[in-house]
């Protein structure tokens, strides 16, 4: 796997982990807002959704990521319960992972807590992690091997946080309404648009901008195409982000949200059941 595809995978996957204020002009016609039947432009709806989503401090996410680069491809699917306060933590399951010639053929429970990612060892690697039931990865150290600051991404959860994601969408100058659709049982309005990476980064505070700028530079994308589905409470119920590079590499991430505001309790596996695999050379596809 190339460094760019590894970085692109980190952009989406690193929920496991973890895109993200200026309001752009809308080129679209008026659209119904989520509340009150008031007619709003697509840009105004995105602004309201960004503000509403920023108030969310816990949620469930169903994430699908696919990427391709120079004849190789990779992808992952996972579900997770995520909390952003008082600290970022999550618990979930990865049931698809294909990267750098590796394919996961079983569901793997995962936990992120205190800067460490834990994964239950799949049956196909029963002898892995010194025979322990769980493997742990220090994301700061593992990220250095892949050339990506994974720990910073997870700590801020920019990649799955609906508040951060929809905030970048407000920079779009061509956002428009597509239609109405039902997502996971909820009636929503579908909007689409595009933003440059520069404009997306300009919506973020200095700290978040610095972190994600490194990742976007490595991925090599210049533009972000997005779709977002907004429910009647101005909440993003689904979003899709697509990145492409001049070299023909691409990454698509789709997230379906639910469980806003529910309590998320996260605990690490028992220490005597955990083996440290941070130094494993195959992590993140290597180089």
Describe, in plain words, how this protein is organized in 3D.
The protein is α+β, with helices and mostly antiparallel strands and 287 residues long. Helix content is 23%, strand content 38%. The chain has seven helices and 15 strands. The chain has helices spanning 3-13, 42-53, 139-146, 150-156, 162-169, 197-202, 206-219, and strands at 30-32, 39-41, 58-69, 72-83, 89-99, 102-103, 108-113, 116-120, 134-138, 176-183, 186-196, 223-231, 236-244, 250-258, 274-276. Strands 3, 4, 5, 6, 7, 8, 9, 10, 11, 12, 13, 14 and 15 form a 13-stranded mixed beta sheet that branches. A two-stranded antiparallel sheet has the order 1-2. A hairpin with a 2-residue loop joins strand 5 (89-99) and strand 6 (102-103). Helix 1 crosses helix 7 (206-219) and helix 2 packs antiparallel against helix 5. The model is unreliable at 1-36 and 281-287 (pLDDT under 50).
Spell out the blueprint of helices and strands.
Layout: H1 3-13, E1 30-32, E2 39-41, H2 42-53, E3 58-69, E4 72-83, E5 89-99, E6 102-103, E7 108-113, E8 116-120, E9 134-138, H3 139-146, H4 150-156, H5 162-169, E10 176-183, E11 186-196, H6 197-202, H7 206-219, E12 223-231, E13 236-244, E14 250-258, E15 274-276
Parallel strand pairs: 9-15
Antiparallel strand pairs: 1-2, 3-4, 3-14, 4-5, 5-6, 5-7, 7-8, 8-9, 10-11, 11-12, 12-13, 13-14
Helix pairs in contact: 1-7, 2-5
How large is the share of residues in beta strands?
35-45%
- Mean pLDDT across residues: 75
The SSE string, one letter per element, is HEEHEEEEEEEHHHEEHHEEEE
Tally of contiguous helical segments: 7
Query: In which range does the helix fraction lie?
Result: 10-25%
Termini Cα gap: 6 Å
The parts where pLDDT drops under 50 for at least 5 residues are 1-36, 281-287
Give me the count of strands.
15
Question: Helix/strand-derived class?
Answer: alpha+beta
Largest β sheet strand count, sense and barrel closure = 13 strands, mixed
Inertia-based shape? globular
Calculate Rg over CA atoms. 19 Å
